[in-house]
Amino acid sequence: MQETRHQFREDLKELERQVLGGLDLVVGQLDRALEAVSYQDVELAAMVVADDDRIDGRYLEVHQGILSLLARQSPVAGDLRIVAALLHCIRCIERMGDQCVNIAKLVPLSGHDSPKDKDILDAIERMGQLARSQVSQSKDALKNRNVELAQDLVHQDAEINRLNRTIFKRAVEVGDEVEMREWGMFMILVARCIERVGDNTVEIAEQVVFVVTGLFREMADIGTSHEAART
Amino acid sequence: MSALSLPEVSPRRRRTDRIMRGVMLAATLLALVPLVLVIFYLLKEGLGSINGAFFTQDPSGSFFGNVGGVRSAILGSVEIVLLATVIAVPIGIGVALYLTEYGTDSRFATVVRYFVDVMTGVPSIVFGLFIYISLVLSHVGGNFTAWKGSVALALLMLPIIIRSAEVVLLLVPASLREAALALGAPRWRIIRKVVLPTAAPGLVTGSLLAVARGMGETAPLLFTAAGASGLTFSLSQQMNSLPLQIYNDVLSPRSAIVSQAWAAGLTLVAMVLILNLIARAISRRSRVA
Amino acid sequence: MIPSETRSKEPTMSTARGPVPDQEEAAPDLSAMGERRAGHGITVNGLNAYYGAQHAVKNVDIDFPANEVTAIIGPSGSGKSTVVRCINRMHEEIPGARAEGSIKLDELDVYDPGVDLTAVRRMIGMVFQKPNPFPTMSIFDNVAAGLRLTGTKSDNLRERVHRSLRAVGLWGEVKNRLNAPGIGLSGGQQQRLCIARTVAVEPEVILMDEPCSALDPIATLKVEELIDELKARYTIVIVTHNMQQAARVANSTVFMLDGEVVEHAPTNDIFTNPKDERTERYVTGKFG
């Protein structure tokens, strides 16, 4: 039997595909931004900055698509929750893209020959891996409407927050010399960007729970980091 | 994409169309001929007798001398039919109301409807005979009287009124009855204030058509009202009427009286025509409103 | 759904027909009917309705709270119109139809054996899908019809008629032609005239069976705004095919399917997070 509202279902699925694709773009940007930091690759960093246009474009497309769907199709109930969630998620994706750009912009500034601290570098790499896996997991949670995966993201994010604080303390510790201090502060900024990426994946997780249960609950547990994500 | 083209009508179809049109036109003209002839003869034979005296004098009844007029016949017809209407219309509409409002489902209503249908087919002379046997022979309230003629005519008019009233009442939209019911109105008030006013033009039309029919019936009056040529207004005596007058005059050896019969016939047709026109004017006005 | 208290009382759309001289009088003005009064709710319990052998309404329990608008939605044949027609006992006017169960207006059972049908219908008014003003009556007579048909003696008939016309927002449009025939009005005006006719009798409850189906969008919006005003004085039950209409006007919504109540919840919940899978499928249009 032909399903009713065929076009509407198609349009809705397409919007969801675009949002999921946006998460893929974020993973790519994050990978390259972190690589640029590790190897001080200025050209790679410049690519990341340029490619952010794709994410911004994706945001505009999805935004326009949602407006159109709301105006023409009057979605209700489960459909309405999905549409609201997609709008929220694409904003998170756009913010995550901006964080990757911020990371990339820090690469030329942090200097090629400056002294580095291994602990900090390890921590940054670990944070990057975690963030990357969180973005991936948020994509799975959204795609499969998996509430368990979504709720697990909160736990993972706790680890990122912890690493962020560790980097901060370490940078204070090793910041006796001017050059080291400067580099340390740049690394703190990088860590902060990665930490915000993590917070955005938590927001996406909240939306997944909202779509499935119809209830919206903030998953902020370890406090202030959540407010910080709202910039 | 090829351009659209409409095929032309074939010559054979055109010819068939023309032939059929001709056949139907011929049938129509054939049907019209007797009608036209009737009116033509009425006018030809009767117009001459129509003058002032025709309307103001009673038939003299004498073989010689002044032939008189048909005043008593015209007035008699009017009176008898009027009484018949007064009897038949309320009863007829009442029966129709029962059939449409209260008895849509009952067995009894179906039986009533069947009998009404049968009554429309009964020959008018049978009604006259029935009243003759039941009222005249039994000498109830006199012998031949005008009011018994009215009763006979009323019996004739009744099924016509019932049938047409039922149709008209059924045409009143159910939504109006529903609206009135939902307001909390009792049924009889709904009938009085909603159904009857809405159906009124149709009811009047139906009644007028029944009246027109009643005006022209001779047979029922033969054994009931009989006919005197003198003018009388009393309904408890014999009364003259146009059909009766025609019946009496047409076989007369005197040609002037025969012409008068034609004129009376013309008058009768004219009265029926006027009633029909009034009925049609009412129904047209109600539709426009 | 925007809570009704925050919506302005003035109509924000202009009429399509041309300048209306008194724009304020075109808005429904229920204060014309007098003091605000608390209404009475309806409780349906174990209602079963039949058309001959066909079991159209199956053991339905619904609570219609006082001074609220409750909408009943559902596909054709779900029994929603039947339920409503049972409330004012119009259902049994159909040959072969019957109903059993209990329907209480506050404490009075409408299906009590001794109850007077016409009295019930005076307390529970009804507005139909197709506007049905009486064609032989003027605008004034149409509104007065409810009072005259029920034999209600009324010293201030004129005042009551004027009040009802004001209450439905029709006064400004017809005050100069009260003797014109009722059927001369436009569709939307005719429907509001029918509502005025119902309101003039001062019922406790107003039942509406798809009141806007036959109206154009602007007339529909006017009637919806009127419904919003009316609930201050009456309890309103509205059957509608149009889900967006239920979403706009109703405080709570009942979803019926195949003669049964599937879900009854605040309208907001039905349209953002329905509990029953069948409700979800119906409101999102997944029904084939």
Helix content of chain B: over 70%
Of all chain pairs, the largest interface belongs to: B-C, 22 and 30 residues
H/E series of chain C, N to C? HEEEHEEHEHHHHEHEHEEHH
CATH domain topology of the domain at 39-134 and 205-283 in chain C? Rossmann fold
Radius of gyration based on Cα positions of chain B: 25 Å
Q: How many strands of chain B?
A: 0
- Classification by helices and strands of chain C: alpha/beta
Question: What is the approximate shape of chain C?
Answer: globular
CATH second-level architecture of chain B: Orthogonal Bundle
By CATH reckoning, the class of the domain at 39-134 and 205-283 in chain C would read: Alpha Beta
Read across the widest sheet of chain C, the strand sequence of neighbours is 6-7-8-3-9-10
Q: Radius of gyration of chain C over alpha carbons?
A: 19 Å
- Regarding quaternary structure, what we see is heterotrimer
What's the CATH H-level superfamily name of chain B? MetI-like
Assess the beta-strand content of chain C as a share of residues. Answer: 15-25%
Based on Cα principal axes, name the global outline of chain B: flat
CA-CA gap between termini of chain B:
52 Å
Please, how many helices of chain C?
Answer: 11
Task: Provide a short characterization of the protein structure.
Chain A is mainly alpha-helical and 231 residues long. Chain A is 84% helix and 0% strand.
Question: How would you characterize this protein structure?
Answer:
The complex is a heterotrimer of chains A (231), B (289) and C (288). By secondary structure, chain A is mainly alpha-helical. Chain A has helices spanning 6-39, 42-73, 77-109, 118-144, 147-173, 178-213, 224-229. Chain A has one domain (6-229): Methane Monooxygenase Hydroxylase, Chain G, domain 1 (Up-down Bundle), CATH 1.20.58.220. In chain A, helix 1 runs parallel beside helix 3 (77-109) and helix 2 packs antiparallel against helix 3. By secondary structure, chain B is an all-alpha fold. Chain B has a single domain (55-288), classed as Orthogonal Bundle (MetI-like fold). In chain B, helix 3 crosses helix 10 (242-250) and helix 10 runs antiparallel to helix 11. Chain B starts with 10 loop residues before the first helix and ends with a helix. The mean pLDDT of chain B is 86. Chain C is globular, with a radius of gyration of 19 Å. Helices cover 32% and strands 22% of the residues of chain C. Chain C has helices spanning 23-26, 80-87, 117-123, 139-149, 157-167, 171-174, 187-200, 217-230, 243-249, 267-272, 277-283, and strands at residues 42-51, 54-64, 69-73, 97-105, 108-109, 124-127, 205-209, 235-239, 252-257, 260-266. In chain C, the strands form 2 sheets. Chain C has a 6-stranded mixed β-sheet, with helices on both faces. A 4-stranded antiparallel β-sheet of chain C has the order 2-1-4-5, covered by helices on one side. Mean pLDDT of chain C is 87; it is low at 1-25. In chain C, helix 4 crosses helix 5, helix 4 (139-149) packs parallel to helix 7 (187-200) and helix 7 (187-200) packs parallel to helix 8. The chains are: A mainly alpha (231), B mainly alpha (289), C alpha/beta (288). Chains in contact: A-C, B-C.
